[in-house]
Write a structure and sequence with these properties.
- By secondary structure, the chain is α/β, with parallel strands linked by helices.
- The protein has a single domain, classed as Rossmann fold, CATH 3.40.50.
- Helix content is 45%, strand content 15%.
- It is globular and about 45 Å long.
Length: 150
């Protein structure tokens, strides 16, 4: 059975993910270090990990399995999930791919270095309605693909 994992601490699409999972009767696991209320939906499990740099990421990477889906913005976590045969999708609807994950990791390292030296300041652009719509569409097709491959 396909399970959806949400890297939930700063995820803007928790409700949307639960909506798609409910349509397919899939278990959803939200992993965070606290501050999120449990869902009334019995198919949604809340896992609270100890606070730490990558505690939620480590928990997801240790539990995710082939054909599961992870919703995350975290590129290293997406890579670890893909190593397990799982699918990973960003909250803006962009699917992490085998061809693009290496470049994404390299770009992340480059940008981190530029931020540390002060050459780049500020964060990502604000999350938009278009991002939310793209996410819903792509998550639906991603879940369908995961169900077919399972």
């Amino acid at each position: 059975m396909v399970t959806i994992y949400i890297d939930a601490d700063a995820c803007p699409v928790k409700d949307e993910t639960i909506q798609v999972a409910a349509r397919h009767n899939l278990k959803t696991i939200m992993v965070c270090d606290g501050g999120i209320r449990p869902s009334a939906n019995p198919m949604v499990e809340l896992v609270i990990v100890t606070q730490g740099a990558d505690a939620a990421d480590d928990w997801i990477a240790e539990h995710i399995q082939k054909s599961d889906v992870c919703v995350t913005n975290d590129i290293p976590l997406a890579s670890r999930c893909m190593d397990q045969g799982a699918l990973a999708i960003k909250p803006n609807g962009e699917l992490f791919t085998e061809n693009g994950i290496g470049m994404a990791l390299a770009n992340r390292e480059l940008m981190q270095g530029l931020r540390e030296t002060g050459q780049i300041t500020g964060g990502p652009r604000p999350y938009s309605k278009a991002d939310r719509s793209a996410f819903l569409n792509k998550l639906e097709t991603t879940v369908q693909a995961a169900l077919r491959s399972n």
